[in-house]
Amino acid sequence: MRLVPEMSAVERPLDVEALKALVLERDRIIAQRDDEIAQHKQSIAGLEHKLHVWAKMLWGPRTEKRPTEIVLPPGQVWLPFADLLDDAQRLADGHGLSGSIEVRLPSETQPKPKARAKRRTEFPDHLPRVRTTIEVPEQDRMCCGAPMEPMGFELSKELERIETAVVHEIARTKYCCRTCQMQVLTAPGPVRVLPKALLGANWLASLAVERFGNHMPYYRLEKKYESEGLLLSRTVLCRSMIELGKRFEPVYQALGEEVTKSDVAFADESSAKVQASNAGGPGRSWVWLYANKDGDCFYDYCESRGRDSPTRVLADFKGALHDDGYCVYEVALDPAKVVHVACWAHVRRKYDEASDAEPTLAKEALEWIARLYAIDSAGKQRGLAAGELGALRREHAPPILAGFKQWLEVRKTQVLPEGPMGRAIGYTLGRWEALCRFVEDGRFELDNNRAERALRALAVGRKNWVQFGNENGGHTAAVFLSLIATCKERGIDPKLYLHDAALLLAEGADPKTLTPRQWKARFSAEVGKRRGYVLAQLLGKLDA
Asked: Which of these, 531, 481, 51, lies nearest to 296 by C-alpha position?
């Protein structure tokens, strides 16, 4: 009886070499399976790492937020009807006119606003009326040797947004000559931001700030106004903003020139959905942000993440550009004119994300980076100028950078290249030259956080209005995001700026003098003085 079955002729190895081949094949299969298992484990670890990073982004603390303090110009007190008083004073100063403003509140006996109607046929009766009466100077009312007599008014109406909705009636006094009965004289009217439009300058400025500063979508604004008895459709609101954006287009382009004329600039980009793209149907668009150290922000809407936007906007830029290392910036710009300064905040973020997988190594890397930030922190506490800060960096930063690079080269051989720590080290070494460039000039910054903070407005808005309707809507958003963000950075009230700049544009002012920087230098003090005067008059009348 045989305990072990005899091998067949096919299964039995013929010689030692065949047996070795079988063993080698078995070892190859086992090694291949081990490699596949290792790859699967690494893939699972990578997915777990991404899940942790995304969970931290969604529910973790946000420590990089910085509050923005807005300093209002002198005399900026938002009392009711102050804007209309300001408009009347502007008209009187410009034409040497006189007149009066009266407020008529609705009586309790007036009918309540009706339910939603199909279309607006008349201005709502439940709103208070503010009438601006414009008079012609007495010396100009002469005809045929006798003073002309009033014969009525030429009345126009517009909705104005102050602290409450009112119907602004602009009554232009008309005069006739009783002798010849041929001459009729009508007082000049104020400028209109959008001629024959339903909405006045204050309402348009308020709507722009609500939509692009407070990120309120049009359908919410429609319901908000409907609760006040106003039947303003989202179509009217959207078209009004597009038309106002066209008026501010020259100012927007001038703002872009101010940004690109700087020697030090910052750039970043973020995506947004578009309902109807140029390619047809829904798609993805991109909003590019370019900023300078003075606080000027220029948003550019583009349906591509390629080189189109940087090539167009930064065509004349010469200097240092802070970016996140996205390859398009280097490909699109001339290296003879533009040097790139990489972002240490992005590097720090990589090691912070890798802290779960390699807590010890991540802590060491973050300590190296913290030493670089400590240099700038000490310089800011001492109030050093850019040149002095550069000298402080050149004295203390090179030894830290040399030590950190040596640490990176050693740790690179001790971690998996595709692991979180390996990718963080590869990211750092791949941008090392641009990361060290901040030592060359005290005007350069350690990170690109200035651009990221400006793009945060787009991220907040995306959660509210979800998507752009089309290219016109995206470009309009870029115009007002640029102006409002720049106003906030420069301590200007965006509503005050948009209201005054819109009227100045309608009066024929040079758009290059109406960027937030130029407006603050040229017109802010005048507006504050004029508002202080009319408010003092109003308060005096109220006290009397």
From this structure: 481
Contact 293, 281 (CB under 8 A): no
My answer on whether 396 and 536 are in the same domain is: no
In a domain, 38, yes or no: no
Which structural domain, as residue segments, surrounds residue 356?
344-447
Looking at the domain assignment, is residue 142 inside a domain? Answer: yes
Closest CA to 270 of 286, 259, 283, 291: 286
Q: What is the DSSP letter of 159?
A: E
The upper half-sphere exposure of residue 237, i.e. CA atoms within 13 Å in the direction of its Cβ, equals 25
**Amino acid occupying residue 114:** K
Tokens of 421: 């720590």
User: For residue 515, what are its two tokens?
Assistant: 């960027």
- Which residues, in sequence order, are bridge partners of residue 339? 320
Q: Is residue 361 part of a domain?
A: yes
Q: Which pair of structure tokens corresponds to residue 146?
A: 């006798």
Sign of dihedral through CA atoms 448, 454, 458, 463? positive
| Residue 120 main-chain phi, psi, to 5 deg | -80, 125
Q: Are residues 90 and 230 in the same domain?
A: yes
Contact 401, 436 (CB under 8 A): yes
* pTM score, whole prediction: 0.76
Same domain, 428 and 503: no
- Sequential pLDDT tens for the chain (544 residues): 444 445 554 555 557 777 778 888 888 888 888 888 877 777 777 777 777 776 666 666 655 443 434 343 444 334 556 666 677 777 777 777 776 666 565 554 455 555 555 455 578 777 777 888 888 888 888 998 899 998 988 888 888 866 678 888 889 999 999 888 889 999 988 888 998 888 999 999 999 999 999 999 999 999 999 988 888 999 999 999 999 999 999 999 999 999 999 999 999 999 999 998 887 788 999 999 999 999 999 999 999 999 999 999 999 999 999 999 899 999 999 999 999 999 999 999 999 989 888 899 999 999 999 999 999 999 989 999 999 999 999 999 999 999 999 999 999 999 988 889 999 999 999 999 999 999 999 999 999 999 999 999 898 888 899 899 999 999 999 999 999 999 999 999 999 999 999 999 999 999 999 999 999 999 999 888 887 776 666 656 555 4
DSSP state, 336?
T
Distances (CA, A) of 374 to 344, 401, 407, 446: 13, 13, 19, 11
- Co-location of 238 and 348 in the same domain: no
How many structural domains comprise the chain? Answer: 2
Helix axes of 16-59 and 344-353: crossing angle, nearest 10 degrees: 120
Distance CA 370, CA 349 (A): 12
* Distance from C-alpha of 402 to C-alpha of 409, rounded to nearest angstrom: 11
Amino acid at 374: A
Pairing assessment for the beta strands 319-322 and 98-104 based on DSSP bridges = unpaired
| CB contact at 8 A, 285 and 303 | yes
Q: What is the DSSP letter of 513?
A: G
Do 435 and 428 form a contact (C-beta atoms < 8 A)? yes
Domain final residue, candidates 447, 467, 483: 447
Question: Helix, strand, or coil here: 103?
Answer: strand
